[in-house]
Specification:
DUF2306_membrane, mainly alpha, membrane, globular, transmembrane
Length: 234
């Protein structure tokens, strides 16, 4: 019972963080729709390129919102064990969304006017490639039957996807302290958001791996030294 409540708490926490990105994406879609419908982007003059080339923005926001809505469900033990078809379908949609979000982020990083300096540019490039790499590694591992490694890579993908939400939590106190958001602050925020999330993800991943190694070592000891030698030779 305690495990179930803890697991539900983790899912709730993921949705709580995801809500920041979902709310931000919804507001951006509304602003984008207003500009496209009226042909007037004066209410958002800092990003006129969004209205001149809106497709990458639309695809990025929609795929990101869908990923953030779907990913917490993958952490449900009930869905993984009793509704495996839903876990697989949900995972397939997540992979499509992650690749779409990553590729469109790379496109926008290259095609739209630069802001945030080199830190922001290389940060977006690094973590856009990272989310694509994480989901591809997740696919490879599950095909190989290595479920723990598959879960680890998908946890990392979720951490990267939630990076923009953590970035906004960084920008709020930065603005209150500095009075404005300078270019270098944007660059630093990009890296902080992603690296903090990945660090937290590793905290959840590493203990699982350590427990599995410990369990194998205990099993080898119980089987006797002959079995340990045989296992080592394999």
């Amino acid at each position: 019972m305690k495990l179930q409540y803890w697991f539900n708490f983790k899912i709730f926490g993921l949705y709580l963080l995801a809500f920041i990105s979902i709310a931000s994406g919804t507001l951006q879609l509304d602003a984008l729709n207003t500009g496209l419908m009226t042909g007037d982007s004066s209410h958002d003059p800092d990003v006129p390129h969004y209205y001149q080339m809106p497709l990458p923005v639309l695809l990025h926001i929609v795929s990101g919102v869908l990923f953030n809505l779907l990913s917490p469900l993958q952490f449900s033990s009930t869905i993984r064990t009793k509704l495996t078809w839903l876990h697989r379908c949900n995972g397939g949609l997540m992979i499509i969304c992650a690749l779409c979000a990553g590729i469109t982020a790379l496109l926008m990083n290259e095609l739209y006017p630069a802001f945030g300096g080199a830190l922001k540019y290389f940060g977006v490039m690094t973590f856009s490639l990272a989310i694509c790499a994480c989901v591809m590694m997740g696919i490879i591992r599950v095909k190989q039957g290595d479920i723990p490694a598959h879960r680890a890579w998908m946890i990392r993908a979720t951490a990267v996807a939630l990076g923009p939400a953590t970035q906004r939590l960084f920008f709020i106190p930065a603005y209150l302290i500095l009075g404005s958001i300078e270019q270098w602050v944007i660059g630093v925020g990009i890296w902080v958001g992603f690296l903090v999330n990945l660090a937290v993800a590793e905290v959840f991943i590493i203990p699982k791996g350590s427990k599995q190694v410990t369990a194998k070592q205990k099993g080898a000891k119980q089987d006797g030294p002959g079995t340990m030698v045989k296992t080592a030779s394999l």
